[in-house]
Design a protein that fits this description.
The complex is a heterodimer of chains A (387) and B (271). With 387 residues, chain A is an all-alpha fold. Chain A has 14 helices and 2 strands. Chain A has a domain of 236 residues: MetI-like (MetI-like fold, Orthogonal Bundle). In chain A, helix 4 runs parallel beside helix 8 and helix 11 packs antiparallel against helix 14. Chain B starts with a helix and ends with a strand. The chains are: A mainly alpha (387), B alpha/beta (271).
Chain lengths: 387, 271
């Protein structure tokens, strides 16, 4: 780059190797206009977020002025349309929490297990086929999930709910208990001499297996006798939302597991570790940040979902008794916003209208926090995989 | 969609133009429940006579009354009678609010077909929905907790139920809310312990309960022996005259074509 005029300038300009001052100005202009417009386009999405925050806060604030926030967070009386309207959203906040937590209980074990299987267990060719199929789950519209939950799953829970739960308790309980027994008996016998170890391990495992099996049998008997009255309940929605959050959890945690790198795995194998040991003690701990990020993204997916919960959660604004009874209908924030928006007229600026924005603000703040935390974990995961 | 938008726009503009003198223009505003009838009437009238220009918007019964008082509409559709305060305000504004009943609407209480309960009293229904009666065995049915299904608070059906049945009592927190009459029916069809309330057009595949020993039908709704029924109104400034666009529109419900339209939409024509 030649700065300013030198004795070479006329020659270079004549040969077309140097821009004339006019061309240089033109180029400067084009470059800055180009950069400027790209910046504008990029900042549009950021601006959109800011605007969303602005408008939601603007319409949520009158609610705080009209009713205060104490009733909203502490009362469970949700009667927005009655003459003496009450806006206690504690049961609705509870509903959102319980449904999201349930979805995470479904999505995380399944999702992380599937991610481990995809990244370290399945052969490459099979993985190429399986991953797109899991990702199709994300492409199914939520109203289709909702329809399934309402028309197929809810009646099924009502008719065969007890049996279903009993079978599920075996399907989940048996492998988990088997794993726990093997690990426990292994740990308990590490200090024995080699000669006695084998016998001790077997003896202990058998001793533990009998009460475990009995407990499982008793549990499934109890569940079998259960009669589910309303199939549109927290359990139904939690399972469906869990399935909807699966693709997010699988693909983000699989990326994290992939990012761990060959060196760590090979190092582990070289020290004599088996594949299971490598996975449990090396790969998963190394990918911990990424897996945490995956879980948080799954939480956000479940929390923000509207259609499925509006169709299949029952929308009863109550905290069930006892509170952990997931076979009772619940109501979530998203479903309340969707369901009450039509009647809440914005013209008169009633509390009924502004309370919905206050709910939206709660959701938005929570998602923002989750997003921030997951970004931190993703950055951390990147740093680990690079070092 | 486009015609709806145009309708909305023309209502706004119409506020200033209605009485500018176009005799073929009718502006209708008010109840979302009566909306389907008004829209079907408008479609029929405009098809029959293309010079007619009828716009229908649905902003709620209360807003319909307000529009009529402010000369912003010709016809106010309402799913409840005008309150005394509204009538008084109309008199002061120099408007004689004339009431025409266009159709009748009844709410049927429905349960699963396997449910042995035959009928309930209004008091029992109120006790069920406010959470005082929680098990079917208290009503002579099987030992099953009652699953309450209600329309969401958005709907006119919900408001009718609230005024005609609940009468100030609050619906219990166990009630499940769904988005349409069809969804209530669907939930009741698939849930043995459920109870719900729907318009008369949504009773297929479910058992309809007698209320105070009266089964809802076109007949019992019209002779008012069925307790959860209500007339649907159209209000005009002064008695509607046959021969004018406005009059013909409001009185369409008395003609055989009008009755057929009302039946098709799912309501009961006035005898």
């Amino acid at each position: 780059m030649i700065k300013g005029d030198t004795w070479l300038t006329p020659t270079l300009a004549r040969r077309g190797l140097l821009l004339t001052p006019a061309a240089r100005r033109r180029q400067w202009l084009v470059r800055h206009v180009g950069q400027g417009s790209l910046l504008l386009v990029t900042s549009l999405s950021t601006l959109a977020v800011l605007f969303i925050f602005y408008f939601i806060i603007r319409d949520a604030w009158p609610f705080v002025q009209l009713r205060g926030i104490r009733e909203f967070f502490t009362s469970t009386h949700w009667y927005p349309s009655a003459a003496g309207a009450e806006f206690g959203a504690a049961s609705i906040l509870f509903g959102s929490a319980v449904v999201t937590f349930g979805a995470i209980l479904v999505a995380v074990p399944l999702g992380v297990a599937a991610a481990v299987c995809l990244s370290d267990v399945l052969p490459f060719s099979l993985r190429q086929g399986v991953k797109p199929v899991i990702e199709i789950l994300a492409a199914i519209p939520s109203v289709a999930y909702g329809f399934f939950a309402l028309v197929v799953f809810a009646p099924l829970l009502q008719e065969k709910g007890g049996q279903l739960l009993a079978v599920a308790s075996w399907l989940i309980g048996a492998p988990v208990l088997a794993l726990a027994i093997i690990v426990l008996s292994d740990l308990a016998t590490t200090r024995m001499t080699d000669a006695r170890r084998r016998a001790g391990r077997w003896g202990l495992a058998m001793g533990l297996a009998v009460p475990a099996l009995y407990g499982l049998w008793a549990l499934s008997r109890g569940l079998d006798g259960l009669q589910i009255n309303s199939g549109t309940n927290a359990l139904n929605v939690a399972i469906i939302l869990g399935i909807m959050a699966l693709p997010t959890v699988v693909s983000v945690s699989e990326d994290a597991l992939q990012a761990v790198g060959r060196e760590l795995r090979e190092g582990s194998y070289a020290l004599g570790a088996t594949r299971a040991e490598t996975l449990v003690k090396i790969v998963i701990p190394a990918a911990r940040s990424g897996i945490t990020a995956a879980i948080i993204l799954g939480v956000m997916r479940a929390l923000g979902e509207t259609m499925v919960v509006w169709m299949a959660s029952g929308n009863a604004a109550q905290i069930p008794t006892p509170w952990f009874n997931v076979l009772e209908p619940v109501r979530t924030l998203t479903a309340t916003i969707a369901g009450d928006m039509g009647e809440a007229d914005q013209v008169t600026g009633s509390a009924r209208y502004h309370v919905l924005f206050f709910m939206a603000l709660c959701l938005l703040v929570f998602s923002f926090l989750c997003n921030g935390i997951s970004q931190r974990f993703i950055r951390k995961a990147k740093r680990i995989s690079e070092s | 969609m486009k015609s709806m938008m145009m309708g909305m726009i023309s209502v706004v503009i119409g506020a200033g133009m209605v009485f500018a003198g176009d005799p073929n223009k009718v502006v209708v505003d008010g109840s979302t429940t009566v909306g389907p009838i008004a829209k079907a009437f408008a479609e029929y009238a405009m098809q029959k006579n293309p010079v007619m220009n009828i716009t229908v918007s649905e902003s709620g019964s209360g807003n319909g009354a307000k529009s009529l008082l402010n000369n912003a509409c010709d016809v106010a559709t309402m799913s409840r009678p005008m309150k005394n305060s509204e009538k008084k305000a109309a008199q002061e504004a120099g408007i004689l609010a004339f009431e025409t009943v266009v159709a009748m609407d009844g709410l049927a209480m429905i349960v699963h077909e396997s449910n042995p309960v035959q009928g309930l009293t209004l008091e029992q229904i109120r006790a069920i929905y406010s959470g005082q009666i929680v098990n079917w065995k208290e009503l002579g049915g099987p030992d099953q907790p009652i699953v309450l299904i209600s329309r969401d608070t958005n709907s006119g059906t919900y408001e009718s139920f609230e005024t005609l049945v609940m009468k100030g009592a609050k619906i219990g927190s166990k009630a499940e809310y769904v988005g349409s009459n069809g969804a209530i029916r669907q939930r009741v069809v698939s849930t043995p312990a459920a109870i719900g309330y729907v318009g008369l057009a949504f009773c297929e595949g479910v058992k309809v309960l007698a209320v105070n020993q009266v089964t809802p039908s076109a007949e019992t709704v019209v002779n008012k022996s069925y307790p959860i029924s209500r007339p649907l109104f159209m209000y005009t400034n002064g008695r509607p005259k046959a021969g004018t666009a406005k009059g013909d529109f409001v009185l369409l419900g008395n003609t055989p074509e009008g009755r057929k339209i009302i039946e098709d939409v799912g309501y009961i024509p006035v005898q």
